[in-house]
């Protein structure tokens, strides 16, 4: 009788534990606010409403920058309006915004309770043949100022374009590569002195355009006695746009695994034909919700979950919160060399990411899981997945704690 009672109590305890256990959050969802709206108030309202952290890049305070003036516009009209705003000097990048405007933006983030995960800086992304130490130092100083104002230590940055704007295919690429490494080390030393860390992103056309070449760059930068530390963001769509080979993004991700500290979630089809007069950077390349293009995010995310513990140790070693950032940069309506626009399609992109995460096993929990809200219908009240399940007495499962599905058979 005693044995039966012990078994019963043990079973009851297991059931209670399964119903109440909340695993420690390990990833967080981050978004570029300007992808929703350039207007600071509008994008902070959106981020706050959905529990998103901020990747800080562009902002404006004028009414002409509001969502209603840019949403669902044809490409030419969108670019015309964006150009007019830029020419009026009322759209700022956080790295070169006037001091008062930057402080107003940072204060607004605090007022809305929105935390900045990183500065989505333009650091790098210049033609190495025209780059100078003084130019780089000026941008770096602006980035440091923005990071301090927004209370973040992560700087999203890039390598350099080979050659010059007029002659990108310059013959002395080896020499230019060495110049790029020297400048990146210079930036790394400045960031280190400021207590910041650079996250390099694979980007079309740069030294470091693929996982393999970006890994080589990070190895070359950090292989010196200065003790410099650089990590990487992987962007799947950037691989797809420049390399139409099957599984290009997946291979790039795998080559970069050693230095990964987060992902940029951006997907695109590989079958877009660049029109006459367009380049990869300027083409109005159509982008897809995550998992619906050719970046192979189903497999990338499944494999990414397996290295999350290692990444968390890296982040905690830097004195960060240890939450691994998944940064939404959908570019669903428009894209350009220095940014993109998603507008009213942002929620669709968020839910696409949720669908991918729901299909992956291994018990990974999302810190700001309230971002994954379910619409009950057009205009109806938004209900938090976690809260709605708990109210109904249904055990809350971590977003990734789902039974195994035949996902990995699609890999390689």
Could you explain how this protein is built, in words?
- The protein has 412 residues and is α/β, with parallel strands linked by helices.
- The protein has a single domain (24-410), classed as Divalent-metal-dependent TIM barrel enzymes (TIM Barrel).
- Helix content is 41%, strand content 15%.
- The chain contains 13 helices and 15 strands.
- It has helices spanning 2-20, 33-36, 40-49, 75-87, 99-112, 133-150, 173-193, 211-222, 236-242, 248-256, 297-317, 346-358, 385-391; strands at 25-32, 53-56, 58-60, 91-93, 116-120, 154-157, 197-201, 230-235, 260-265, 324-328, 334-335, 340-341, 365-366, 373-375, 382-384.
- The strands form 4 sheets. The protein has an 8-stranded parallel beta barrel, surrounded by 7 helices. A two-stranded antiparallel ribbon has the order 3-4. Strands 11-12 form a two-stranded antiparallel ribbon.
- Helix 6 (133-150) links the parallel strand 5 (116-120) and strand 6.
- Helix 8 (211-222) runs parallel beside helix 10 and helix 9 crosses helix 10 (248-256).
- The protein is globular, with a radius of gyration of 22 Å.
- The chain starts with a helix and ends in a 21-residue tail after the last helix.
Structural class: alpha/beta
| The top level CATH class name | Alpha Beta
Compute the CA-based radius of gyration: 22 Å
Q: Note the beta-strand portion.
A: 5-15%
């Amino acid at each position: 009788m005693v044995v039966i009672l012990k078994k019963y109590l043990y079973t009851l305890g297991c059931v209670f534990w399964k119903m109440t256990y909340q695993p420690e959050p390990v990833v967080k969802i981050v978004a570029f606010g300007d992808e929703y709206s350039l207007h600071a108030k509008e994008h902070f309202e959106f981020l706050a409403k959905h529990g998103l952290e901020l990747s800080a890049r562009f902002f404006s305070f004028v009414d002409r920058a509001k969502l209603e003036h840019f949403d669902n516009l044809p490409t030419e009209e969108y670019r015309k309006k964006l150009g007019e705003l830029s020419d009026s000097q009322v759209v700022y990048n956080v790295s070169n915004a006037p001091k008062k405007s930057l402080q107003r933006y940072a204060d607004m983030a605090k007022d809305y309770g929105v935390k900045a995960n990183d500065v989505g800086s333009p650091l790098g992304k210049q033609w190495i043949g025209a780059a100078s130490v003084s130019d780089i130092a000026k941008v770096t100083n602006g980035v440091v100022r923005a990071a301090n104002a927004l209370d973040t230590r992560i700087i999203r940055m890039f390598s350099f374009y080979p050659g010059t704007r007029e002659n990108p295919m310059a013959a002395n690429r080896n020499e230019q590569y060495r110049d790029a490494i020297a400048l990146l080390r210079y930036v790394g030393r400045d960031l280190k002195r400021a207590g910041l860390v650079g996250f390099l992103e694979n980007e079309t056309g740069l030294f470091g355009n693929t996982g393999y070449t970006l890994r080589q760059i990070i190895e070359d930068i950090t292989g010196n006695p200065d003790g410099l530390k650089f990590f990487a963001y992987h962007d799947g769509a950037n691989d797809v746009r420049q390399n139409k080979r099957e599984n290009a993004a997946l291979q790039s991700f795998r080559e970069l695994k050693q230095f990964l500290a987060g992902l940029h979630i951006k997907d695109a089809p590989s079958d877009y034909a660049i029109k006459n007069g367009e380049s990869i950077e300027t083409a109005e390349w159509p982008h897809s919700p995550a998992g619906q293009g050719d970046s192979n995010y189903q497999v990338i995310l499944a494999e990414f979950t397996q290295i999350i513990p290692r990444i968390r140790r890296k982040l905690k070693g830097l004195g960060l919160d240890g939450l691994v950032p998944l940064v939404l940069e959908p570019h669903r309506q428009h894209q350009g060399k220095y940014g993109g626009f998603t507008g009213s399609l942002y929620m669709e992109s968020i839910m696409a990411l949720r669908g991918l995460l729901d299909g992956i096993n291994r018990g990974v929990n999302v810190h700001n899981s309230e971002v994954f809200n379910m619409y009950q219908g057009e205009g109806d009240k938004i209900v938090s997945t976690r809260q709605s399940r708990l109210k109904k007495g249904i055990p809350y499962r971590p977003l990734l704690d789902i039974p195994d599905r035949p996902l990995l058979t699609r890999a390689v």
